[in-house]
Amino acid sequence: MTQPIEDYALIGDLMTSALVGRDGSIDWLCLPRFDSAACFARLLGDEENGHWRIAPAGAADDDGCTRRAYVDDSLILESVWETEDGTIKVTDFMPQRDVMPDVMRIVEGLSGTVTVRSTLRLRFDYGDIVPWVRRRDGDRVAIAGPDSAWFRSEPPVRTWGEDNSTRSEFTVTAGEKVAFVLTWHPSHQPRPDPLDPDEALEQSLADWHDWAARCAYVGPYREAVVRSLITLKALTYAPTGGIVAAATTSLPEELGGVRNWDYRYCWLRDATLTLGSLLATGYHEEARDWRAWLLRAVAGDPADLQIMYGIAGERRIPETDLPWLRGYADSAPVRIGNAAVDQLQLDVYGEVMDALYLARAGGLPTERHAWRIQLALLDFLERNWRRPDEGLWEVRGPRRHFTHSKVMAWVAADRAVRTLEHDPSMPGDVARFRAIRDEVHADVCANGYDPERNTFTQYYGSRELDAATLLIPRVGFLPPDDPRVIGTVDAVREELGGSGFVRRYSTEGPSVDGLPGDEGVFLACSFWLADALHLTDRGKEARELFERLLDVRNDVGLLAEEYDPVAGRQLGNFPQAFSHIGLVSTALLLGWGPPRD
Questions:
Q1: Fewer Cβ in 10 A, N or C end of the chain?
Q2: How far apart, in whole angstroms, are the C-alpha atoms of residue 6 and residue 559?
Q3: Dihedral (CA of 302, 373, 524, 559) sign
Q4: How many CB atoms lie within 10 A of CB 72?
């Protein structure tokens, strides 16, 4: 049976991550990196595509744990199962990597005597390849092509092979523990030295507690802010500082639909808000690493700037379908890679300029080559900002003159002007950049604004609306008290609102994105609406909306990309960095007020 997306919790080691369901099954795990092939792919198929369940022996397939929670401010998950025979606790975590990735699951008896069963089905290459499993040195090793995984328990328990799976069964009484460890390594390399599970748990708790304690935010909603920051940290690829948009691929924006995309990459659109959130909450090291990733990724010819890159800055992300996976809730196709990498999205130039401006203003050490990169980006944008593009939402329909793209072109020129006004000794023609800024501003106000309806529209000449126009006051294109801003906020809330939340744009009638079907309300856009309400002096409404959005989080504080307010279900890839960035950003705005210029 397909578990709701919100039934999953995240564990990870800052290089990859896994999703653990309420039923005690790890249904998604890519090794050794976020964007590697999954060895557990039940999330997008069925149990034969790989999973690892630990639960009381009498639990039915669809039975879930009694309760679960992360341990304090950490990414260590505790799930408690209460049965007629007693109670157990399963602690799931991935210690921050020493050599190779480990998944650790510690079963502890709390009361009574409980029989516990573990069922491990390893399926490499996104659930397609059944490995060869054999005993070695008292443990199990599974090998197929380049992949090898070792499976052991401490103390050893009865384990056997059955139906191309590895099964274990044992009993625990109060105070007894059994720890399982799954360790991946390249099959041509020797087995890494085993880690002690108890020591790894203690060290992991200390690592997460130390990291969370650095959070400088002390305003309202601090618990939600810290949990979202932990989630963003968990989606960070530690060797490079890149932050993936989500841990998954192809979780649908509509159940049974085709809007299924791979989000295990790094989007430039996230740069400014991510940097702002990290700097404002005291995480300067992470902000510095993210900026360093950004500068490496965008280095080169500005004409070759992409909207997304791999976690190490890779440029080639070819998209393909996996026909052996039926898709989450029969939502096919299942895609890996993302063809949107080849799109023209002019807004990313503004986002990069804004992020680097923010990094400089936020006190990060100056990178000498950063400004040269920015000047090159501006040269390209000066020649190309008038072109139509695919826009922020990566539409797969015709290119258009998207209003948001033009606004972000204005942002690019504006941040260059601000930089040179602050430090006139830096190279650059400030008068030229002011002229570009003024020309773009006039163009947007003349062509992206509908005076009859008093609102900015999705693209030039359209009557459709776009939630991205809610960012106009946030980026400084117009002041919050401008009647055109207030009119846009009201129009977006009325026409794109759904149960109090906001869709990105309308999918009714001839869709701008060239795709069939519908999608849920977009959570990041709903946070933008809360921001816009706050900035337009409707603080009570902003806070009420923000608190409704907090209620959308699942029981362990995680958000997907979208939400179906009618069915009360999360939709899209999970957990979604953009949603959690939106949560942190809005909480800071409500708690600390608008950022200073």
A1: C
A2: 8
A3: positive
A4: 11
Residue the block writes with tokens 């957990």 = 575
* Cα distances (Å, whole numbers) of residue 328 to 7, 63, 249, 251: 13, 19, 10, 6
- Alpha-carbon distance 244 to 359, whole Å? 20
Q: Please name which of 454, 440, 550 lies closest in space to residue 494, comparing C-alpha atoms.
A: 454
| Token representation of residue 440 | 């773009």
Checking DSSP bridges between strand 158-162 and strand 147-154, what pairing results, if any?
unpaired
Tokens found for residue 470:
């809610």
Q: Residue 102 carries which side chain, given as an amino acid letter? A: D
d(CA 8, CA 463): 39
Taking the C-alpha atoms of residue 159 and residue 118, their distance in angstroms, rounded to an integer, is 9
Tens-place pLDDT, residues 452-498: 999 999 999 999 999 999 999 999 999 999 999 999 999 999 999 87
Rounded distance, CA 260 to CA 333, Å? 7
| Alpha carbons 407 and 454: distance in angstroms, whole number | 17
Question: Rounded distance, CA 559 to CA 332, Å?
Answer: 22
> Quick one: pLDDT band at residue 529, thresholds 50, 70, 90?
very high
Cα 532 versus chain centre, distance: 23
0.85 surpassed by pTM:
yes
Amino acid letter for position 146: P
Dihedral of alpha carbons 30, 32, 36, 37, sign: negative
Residues in the chain: 597
Contact 307, 282 (CB under 8 A): no
Tokens of 224: 């939600």
Give CA 71 to chain center in angstroms. Answer: 21
Q: Closest by alpha carbon to 271, among 253, 251, 292? A: 292
Which H or E element spans position 199? helix 197-212
Q: What letter represents residue 385's amino acid?
A: W
- Asked whether 241 and 283 are in contact (CB, 8 A), the reply is no
Dihedral of alpha carbons 357, 361, 362, 363, sign: positive
DSSP line for 453-510: TTEE-SBTT----BGGGGGHHHHTSS-TTSHHHHHHHHHHHHHSEETTEE-SB--SSS
SS3 content of the chain, % helix, strand, coil (to 5): 35, 25, 40
- What burial class does residue 352 get, using C-beta atoms within 10 Å of its C-beta: 0-12 exposed, 13-18 middle, 19+ buried? buried
CA distance 508 to 561: 20
The DSSP symbol for 233 reads H
Q: Which contiguous run of DSSP H or E holds residue 133?
A: strand 132-136
Structure tokens at 272: 């400014």
Task: Give the number of other CB atoms < 10 A from CB of residue 80.
Answer: 15
> pLDDT confidence of 596, banded at 50, 70, 90?
very low
Place of tokens 């679960």: 68
How much is the pLDDT for 597? 39
Q: Which amino acid is at 361?
A: A
Angle subtended by helix axes 197-212 and 222-234, to nearest 10: 120
